[in-house]
Every structure is written in C-alpha cells, then in structure tokens.
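Here's what a typical entry looks like (Zn-dependent hydrolase):
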Amino acid sequence: MKIHTIEGYIQNIYLVAYPDKLLLLDGCSRADVTMLCQYITDKLRRPLHQLKLIVVTHMHPDHAGGAHYLRNLTGAQIATANCPGQWYRGLDGMLMHLSDIALALWVAGRKRKARKNLWYSRTLKPDVYLPDGAELPGFEDWQVLHTPGHTDRDISLYHAHRSTVYIADVMVQVRGKLIPPYPVFYPRLYRSTLLKLQQLAPATVMLAHHSELAFAEIDFAQLLQLAPTQPVTHWRSVKTKTRRALGLGKRGSS
C-alpha cells in the first residue's frame, strides 16, 4: 500500500494505491476530477476502473463535489457515514449549499487559484453507508471512525498497521497553528471528537488542508481550549444578519 498526496483545488487529495485497486479517502471537488483521473492514468499508469471506492467524509464542496462525477467515470462505489437524511435538506439546506460553494471559491481566490466550476448535487447518493467502527468494503485494513462536530456526519479513516488516520477537516492550520475548523455546527460533538482522536494516538495524522504530520505535533489541550462552546457557522451569521435587516429580531438557529 502507498498513499499518494496530491494537491487539489483547495485541499489535499489522498489516493491509496494497492497492486490491483485504488482507494480515494475523500470525494474531493468537482474542479479536481479531470486532474485526478489524469494522475491515475498518466502518473500511476493505472486504468480508471481500478478506483474501487470513494469515501465522502462530509458534504462540503471540497469533500463531496467530485464523488458522483468520479463514480460515473470509473465505476467506483461511494461510501459515507450512516447518518440519517441529507445534510443540505430543505430550503435552509439549499441556501447553505450555495453559500458553501461561494466560500470554497473564496478560499480558492485566497490561494490565487483560477475560478472554476464547483457545482455539484446537494443530494448524495452513496452505495455504502458506514457505521462507526466498520471496515471499508474491499479495503478492510481501513477502519471508519465517526468524528462529527464540523458537521453532523464527518468521518475519519484509520489505518492501524500504518498507524495513521485521515481526519479531513477536524482541524486546520492557519498561520502555522492548528485550530478548530470553520464552521463548527455541533460544538459538544466536536469536543468529543478531539478526545476520541487524542485517545487513538496514531503515529501520524492526515489533514485535508495540511500535509501529513506527526501526532506528537498536535497540541490537543490548545485545540480543546480553542474549541467553541456555541455553534460557529457562516450560515448562522448570514441568517442573523438577514433577520436583522428584515426587522425580525433575534431567533434561535438550527
């Protein structure tokens, strides 16, 4: 097994290569699909049909945006958490989906990337639902860990033999410092996730918005101190400002 780290549009892509099959640790963005396919066929010299499984750790544009397109091109299955319902459900979900795509484009601009089409369906249609502790189908050396907080359905992927875990957006690096992600919809679940990873204590950790780093480099005490106690989301802020502009006053948020 070899893990290839590929620079994506706004995040790192982790492609795991075995002698006869490939595993994608996250669904990347729509802007990454062509580049990733070329990497498989040109760099690895492998046929696209060897991509057997695409994991979607959560529904944000840089983690789910390429999943359906890649399945159409490769025949791979899509696997995700067995969390009920759709993340972007209802009118709120439709508007949040648009705002998340806009935020991803803003991040791309900050990284001086050319503007690209990031549109993708807000409804995920997976082939496999993954409970906490399950093994990935066809890749039983990887274990699924439910690690919510950033959203209600985040998952991480743990490889015991290599002693590494891919944690997607559980933490991000800003100005050389590891901090909680933005947004955090479920602060209590997020704190539990940090404690779960701290107890797991792998040798290394793979982040979507940072390269692989040694577990010993992570200051969990500081992360727990920085972890919010109330939901911190751009969508919460947008709704509050809109209600104030309409003279609706303060209301509880979902």
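The longest strand covers residues 139-146.

More examples are in the samples folder.
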